[in-house]
Amino acid sequence: MSAGPPPAPLGPAALAAAAPGEAHEHVFLGASHGRNERRSWIVIGLTTGMMLAEIAAGHLFGSMALVADGWHMATHAAALLIAALAYRYARRHARDRRFTFGTGKLGDLAGFASAIVLALVALLIGWESLLRLRAPVPIDFAEAIAVALLGLGVNLASAWLLRDAPHHHGHGPGHDDHDDHDDDHHHGHHHGHRHGGDTNLRAAYLHVLADALTSVLAIAALLLGSLYGWLWPDPLMGLAGALVIARWSAGLIREAGGVLLDDLPAEARLPAAIREAVEDGEARITDLHVWQLGPGHHGAILSIAAAAPRPPSHDRRKLAHLPALSHVTIEVEPAAPRGG
Fold first, then answer.
1. Ranges for the Cation efflux protein transmembrane domain (predicted)?
2. 131 lies in which domain range?
């Protein structure tokens, strides 16, 4: 039997019809998971071809900027491979029950690894540029500029492929926002807007963008050298690029690391929205945990103290307007008597 694409995750309507006690699925992949995986492989091919051309041309024409850009592309090709393999693994193991909350966060792990690679790239470029600044070598400017322009074109095409285009998410007919059965778990298939972006895609995009930056700086340095005969702008531009790339790496490490540690950004509005929806004069939330399950998917665990008995479905309905919630566990306990 040939292995086809994985079936779509169960939506709320299907879950509502499931028999009591039936296992729920935990498929929390991003809405554009397949698209991003395919485009990552295309960009790997483009990057690898241009990498070989730039390294060879840089050594042939004596341009440190081209050599740096070529080796920069080599490490980015490796990082892009990490991203593509992460997409594939997450897709193939999305229903593997060894992963308690699915494989949605695998992209964040890959993004964190890519950020480390990006930091190493910055160190490599900075070190090589310092060496070349100390001991300049002759450069064949015209040939080097031509190769750098070609590299920039490849980088821009790759960045276009990896851009995170906006999506409008919705469900087909028969998919309700929240199931109304009396089980204390809810598994929806919603996609968030502000938080929960695809860190894996962002990491791949930053790698390509770093390549484009290096190409732009190389072209600027080579143009100055060809006009005035200067050799120092070439390694100086390499240093400038290394600093910018290091800053991008630090931001990506913070972002991916925060997701891996279940750290919601301080400006995240989802916890406050949950409290606003649930708490009233009859009930209050005594314990709340919210974390990211995958791109556009969040989980929440609520402990609610209620003055009168109420089923979990009562509070799930109150959360139906929050599309970022894909997995909700609700515990309701009687509130302690006041003054008692």
1. 41-261
2. 30-165+195-260
